[in-house]
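Subject: for your reference before the review

Hello V.,

The reviewers asked for a structural picture of the protein, and I figured it would be easier to keep everything in one thread rather than splitting it across files. Below is the amino acid sequence we used in the manuscript, unchanged from the supplementary table.
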Amino acid sequence: MRIAAALVAALVTCAVQAADGFPAILERTSTYVAKFEQEFASIIWHETYEQIDRLPRTFGASGGRFAGVTRRHLESEMLFILAESDGAWLTVRDVISVDGKPVPRRLPTLLASPDVWIRDLRALSQENGRYNIGAIYRNFNEPTLALSFLDSRYRRRFRFTDGGPGEIDGSLLRRIRFAEVVTPTVIRNENRNLRASGNLIVEPATGRVLRTELTLLLDKGNDKNSVRAELTVAYRPDARLGLLVPVEMHESYGFGSAGPDQRIECTATYTDFRRFETSGRVIQ
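And here is what came back from the structure prediction:
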């Protein structure tokens, strides 16, 4: 019976994909993302963030090369909130500790104020990468980044195509490929373009996004000095909120043709999702 039920479920999923076609699945996913942004607005959660920097170093005046390994452990609180003045979604990272040592926090003070200013939250968001290690500066390492490309503000800047069937834990899904086609790009690094591409792995019948795979490429004119970033995020149901939430993000950063032993590798895990509450007014 279990085999028969699984077969029926698979056939129903395939039938939905075949009947609806890719345009319908894309629209369903876009509608889901818009709803997700509204439901996820003003959510706070905990982040545990492990970083390993294996990028090569130069040894003193001799110019000798070696692969140094540096590690960093961060504990943070994160906030997702809408800046209604320009329709932008902000992901704010407030670091609690660095390698086990507490650091001064700013988010609790901002949220406890009688007036919670979006400008202050935006400024803190711009500092998301202040404790990151490695030679590649980044403050865009947030789990919901790839979802934003389907937002009405950015969608026209991307080309979305059918990536065919996908699978997660035995479930048949659909892969939506995206590629940024407009310059300047959404993500910038020191006034240089970071062009985005990748996949959204979605349920075709609902448009729910279960995984995002994002690649960002900074081309400096030659392969050796170009920068490549890869971010993969997994989503799972959260019983408290009643929606899918990001639970884990894997990141990889490297220069050009550098090998796997010359990269920055990061893993973030997310827990304790809850609604943002404040007695103050949110001022746009």
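For the response letter, the relevant points are probably these. Helices lie at 2-40, 107-112, 118-126. Confidence is low (pLDDT under 50) at residues 1-12, 15-19.

Happy to draft the paragraph if you're swamped.

O.
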